[in-house]
Amino acid sequence: MSQKKVDAYKAEKKNRKANAIKEKKQKKFRSILVWVILGAVITGLVVALVFTFRGAATTATDPFQASQFLLQDYGDVQGTYVEPTEAPTEAPTEGTQAAN
């Protein structure tokens, strides 16, 4: 063996333990990353399927129920919105004012 190969072997042997630990960490990280991505993809598919079938069921029974959440009150767009108050009470009549 040439001196260059001997030096490379000694350097690799010197760092063997550290490299093994580093490779184990990388393998564990890749494994966790794959499971997280797989979980996200499966969750996305399930959510998409649920909304697809649930949306189809609501539109088949009641076409207005599916888009009800889109309706908003735009009464105050021009500043003309009036807050709802309690029902107006009856105005006092002349007879009740005279009694006071």
Provide a descriptive summary of the structure in words.
- The chain has 100 residues and is mainly α.
- The chain has a domain of 64 residues.
- It is 64% helix and 0% strand.
- It has three helices and no strands.
- 0% of the residues are buried.
Please tag this protein with its features.
single chain; 100 residues
Layout of secondary structure:
Elements: H1 3-14, H2 16-61, H3 94-99
Structural class: mainly alpha
Strand content: under 5%
Shape: rod-shaped
Biggest beta sheet summary: none
Distance between the termini: 121 Å
Query: What Rg is obtained from the alpha carbons, in whole angstroms?
Result: 37 Å
The SSE order reads: HHH
Number of alpha- plus pi-helical segments:
3
For the secondary structure, the number of strands is 0
Mean pLDDT: 76
Helix content: 55-70%
Low-confidence stretches: none
